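Subgroup meeting minutes
Present: P.N., E.W., G.H.
Scribe: E.W.

1. P.N. recapped why we're keeping a running log of single-chain structure predictions: easier to compare across weeks, and new members can see raw inputs and outputs side by side.
2. G.H. added today's entry (312 aa).
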Amino acid sequence: MKKTVLVIALACGVSGVFAQDLTSKKGEPMLPEANDWAIGMDVNPIFQYLGNAFHGTAASSNTPDVNWLNGNQTIIGKKFIDDKSAYRVLVRVGFTNQTTKGMIGDASVTTGAVYPAAPAMVEDKMAVKNTNIAIGAGKEWRRGKTRLQGYYGADAMIWLSSTGTKYTYGNALSASTTHPVVASAATTTNFGSNLGTDAYGYGSRVTKTKSGMGFGLGVRGFIGVEYFIMPKISLGAEYGWGLGFQTQGKGTNSTESVGTPSTGTTQTVGAIDTKTSGSSKFGIDTDLNQGNMFGFKGSNTGTASLRAMFHF
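Output recorded in log:
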């Protein structure tokens, strides 16, 4: 009888130890439960910052940074069906419109400014628009009865993207014989790639560019592990293998210049619209979507992602 009581007491004690391991001192459960939600973020930038801080790396690469899980503004959330499985949702909806301005001398003014008056100036603008829309869904299954949890599953994704640039110039081109205005660094702000030479050898400037629509599909199997350091907060790593296909449609590039038509000798202002070629690619590799969940990572393919997950 005494042996039986001792065995039961020992069993209860061991059970209590394990139970305590899965709850906080306040009785909060360590592991996710049915109907819990979760969101995660990449912690690689944090470790990089700490490493650079201890090694005296230049400040340009030693700035704290926090990116969403798998980066590139892709948000991954989870909805737990039960304590051993969860649905995953991947969302990225991004629109950016960035305007850069520059001042250039007013080409319509034919006489120079008299000191101390400032030269007459006009404003040029470059507006860049980007659109990225992506959605994905997946499911994961979990194993483990302690704070150390393993999981595996698969994600499927689809995405669309486009980009375009529009230039507005303060100096209009002119083919006037008395006061011509041609595309050059003297009349046009150089934004980096808007000034050049057209197919006929005349100086030209870009007025508009538009990429073709980008479209992609991808699927990815994954396996990971995480350790719950606090109630419903874990650190872990994920590694995967997947395949993806993406295509880029043909775009347009519009320029303007001052040139001489083949039918005469009088110069005129002309606009040229050219098509840009499209592209496509297909790949199968380890962690194809690592770093950019909706694209091809490139040279870093095959590296695991360190992350922090928050459950609530």
